[in-house]
């Protein structure tokens, strides 16, 4: 796939799921095209931004280091996202980054992720937790905040309050994840979901 075709497919109907593997493979083959994906994702009110976000997520699942090519831009963009699909994909990418940083203690991620990135992730994840977002968004955000709270204690305090406030009306998935995280915080043990 050449760059012109890549842009065209990204701009096409976002519901054509058969294009996703082609787009992901193209990004893996041409890592610099991740900036095109991020550019399309930044059209925050365009339904095709969801497709771009999903391509970014799937490419990062294959090679998370790709996000380093656009980490600063990604960190700034996430707080502006409006569509749940874009937010869900971004929350998953943040979760993957936090696992590398806090669970796997991967020195590459510890070096690349600055305090500013961690603050932006914290702010976005809390925003997604306190708004009426889908369970997947909240679950990814919840775990990322739990991991961030191992570095910044105040996060755990706020996270527990937020989870406890939302547990009664939360879905079964929210309740299960929330209870695991509260238990891990209260017993001071490491919760590894991956």
Question: Can you walk me through this structure?
Answer:
The structure is a single chain. The chain is mostly helical. It has one domain: Leucine-rich Repeat Variant. Helices cover about 70% and strands about 0% of the residues. The chain has 11 helices and no strands. Helix 8 crosses helix 9 (about 135-150). The longest helix has 20 residues, at about 85-105. The protein is globular. The model has no long low-confidence stretch (mean pLDDT about 95).
Quick one: overall form? globular
- At CATH level 2, the architecture is Alpha Horseshoe
The fold-level CATH name is Leucine-rich Repeat Variant
Unreliable segments of 5+ consecutive residues: none
Mean pLDDT: 93
Q: If helices are DSSP runs of H or I spanning 4 or more residues, what is the number of helices?
A: 11
Radius of gyration: 17 Å
Distance between the termini: 33 Å
Report the strand count. Answer: 0
Helix coverage percent of residues?
A: 55-70%
The description of the largest β-sheet is: none
Q: Number of domains in the coordinates? A: 1
SSE order, one letter for each helix or strand? HHHHHHHHHHH
Structural class computed from helices and strand pairing = mainly alpha
Q: Beta-sheet strand percentage? A: under 5%
Briefly, what CATH class?
Mainly Alpha
